[in-house]
Amino acid sequence: MWEKLVECVPNVSEGRDKAAIEAMAQAIRNVSEVRLLDVQSDPDHNRSVFTFVGTPEGVATAVLELFAAALPRIDLRVHRGEHPRMGAVDVVPFVPVRGVKMQDCVALAHKVGKEIWKKFRVPVYLYAESATRPERQDLSEIRKGEFEGFFEKIKDPNWHPDFGDPVVHPTAGVTAVGAREFLIAFNVNLGTSDLRVAKEIAKAVRFSSGGLRYVKALGMELRERGIVQVSMNLTNFRKTPLPRVLELVRREAQRFGVPVVGTEIVGLIPEEALVQVAEYYLQLEKFSLGQVLERRIEEALRGE
Amino acid sequence: MWEKLVECVPNVSEGRDKAAIEAMAQAIRNVSEVRLLDVQSDPDHNRSVFTFVGTPEGVATAVLELFAAALPRIDLRVHRGEHPRMGAVDVVPFVPVRGVKMQDCVALAHKVGKEIWKKFRVPVYLYAESATRPERQDLSEIRKGEFEGFFEKIKDPNWHPDFGDPVVHPTAGVTAVGAREFLIAFNVNLGTSDLRVAKEIAKAVRFSSGGLRYVKALGMELRERGIVQVSMNLTNFRKTPLPRVLELVRREAQRFGVPVVGTEIVGLIPEEALVQVAEYYLQLEKFSLGQVLERRIEEALRGE
Asked: What residues 143-182 of chain B have any CB closer than 8 A to a CB of chain A?
């Protein structure tokens, strides 16, 4: 097991051509110091999301290999899909997983962004924690106008890229590269069929309408079960911990006399977030990740 | 990382002679498919506890190497210590950690027990989940009479060993070998200085006086903090889960108007127990260990 571990979740503007998607996946798999964990392709969005982890060096290499595989296979001039996009490789987030700090991922985004311009002549915008200006923190702000609009947008000095000349790549557009925290997808199911309750609770807990800082939330119906759900993204579980979010949802639900009937974590959750949950509900006075048996074993194995 | 993982926690009747303890530790370290995680020696008890993990084969080899190192260094005829003991290597528990079932550890105990007799002429009693009779499940029942008493006890047909002739090894006594579940040491601190409250709660929750099946509990004082504690061993967290134990303690404490002010996990806890805690308090509808990021990464690494 590697001592330093970074997760990378690039989004690519191809969700239909299976051979092209497989070629890109293979480009990642060929890098020795990374492991591809998941590939999700959406034909309607015409977009694929690759999830992989590896050493900082391995992840940097894999992103460049992904570019080398994507650029000859994607032509944004003819790309259509529901999801907004500005690049063949649209966005490349780096997430600290273990033995690396956010600052290391910020530095990694700089290094990889620079290389992308140098090797492929695709202009790069640094976003999220790597952003060089406040208005570039939010990816959707950068992406406004999409590929087609960027030929004008890039000439505006406020929208000159962080790396590269203000000239859009003719077929691959521009790319956003940045560091961000691990994202947890967490849904809370409520014992009511009244969608307004879920919408009210979502509004109460999400950042955009006055709630917790690192929470995005929507009210949704689960028709087949006859219940409703508060569907959330926790964008920084270290600062806005999962148990605090759940307890706030629970408290708001009580105002409507509605019980929480269940919850779900969609996809992956870091061990550290599980430890947070245990610390919160068990009232643990002191606990360290080193007390997790499997973690201790891994450390013993790495210590060879 | 190895696919099958067993923990082994042998207790040896030597807690004073540092050179002897180090020689035994080194015998374990020398086995390639195990990792020694911890050595705890108690001079008053004159006893050492080695914690190591490894493949079933590696762990079996390490136990035999430990015997080879311990037997020339320990003579029970001159051994004195507070802790009861019947063997130079007193007890050898095998704990399933990953990719192995309890039945596999039961089989491992049989295999290793047989080898111990064959190679070292030390009679072996199978205990805990490996026990061949109900009265041999409890280690303290087997150990009654200790080394000195065993020369008579072993002649009783009810106390013939599971492996070997009914003849005590002259310097190394007899050994208990068995499979058991992982043990979690969990303490709950109470906001009172009244020891009776801790004792009453311990009595309510422990198996021996009518409580939960896999709980051992004692009431204790934490003098320097001016509070009391319910100190527990959870001997099977899969069947008597940690959160249920805590909630029962909390409920009993409420009868005395006493709050839980904190808890602690002493030593190691398996990731699976952390997941149990999350499932319980978050009301997770479906969740698998495969959703833990680090676990998924490990699986991807092992899949090479």
From this structure: 182
pTM of the full structure:
0.81
ipTM above 0.95, yes or no: no
Inter-chain contact B261–A274, Cβ cutoff 8 Å? no
Contact residues, chain B, for A260 at CB < 8 Å: 283
Closest partner CB to A262 (pick from B260, B275, B285) = B285
Of A179, A194, A219, the domain-final residue: A179
Q: Which CATH number do you get for residue A189?
A: 3.30.70.670
Which residue of chain B is at minimal alpha-carbon distance from A250? B282
CB atoms within 10 A of CB A213: 10
B151 and B262 assigned to the same domain? no
Domain-ending residue, one of B164, B179, B194 = B179
Q: Are residues B240 and B296 in the same domain?
A: no
A94-140 pLDDT, tens digit per residue, is 999 889 999 999 999 999 999 999 999 999 999 999 999 999 998 98
Paired tokens of B280 = 């319980």
DSSP letters, A194-212, are -HHHHHHHHHHHSGGGTS-
CB atoms A293 and B35 under 8 Å: no
A74 and A111 housed in the same domain: yes
Closest CB from B242, B265, B282 relative to A277: B282
Give me the domain span that covers residue B67.
Answer: 5-179
The reply to whether B243 touches chain A by the CB within 8 Å rule is yes
Q: b vs e for B87-122, b when ≥16 Cβ sit within 10 Å of the residue's Cβ? A: bbbbbbbbbbbbebebebbbbbbbebbebbbeebeb
Cα(A127)–Cα(A176) distance, rounded to whole angstroms? 6
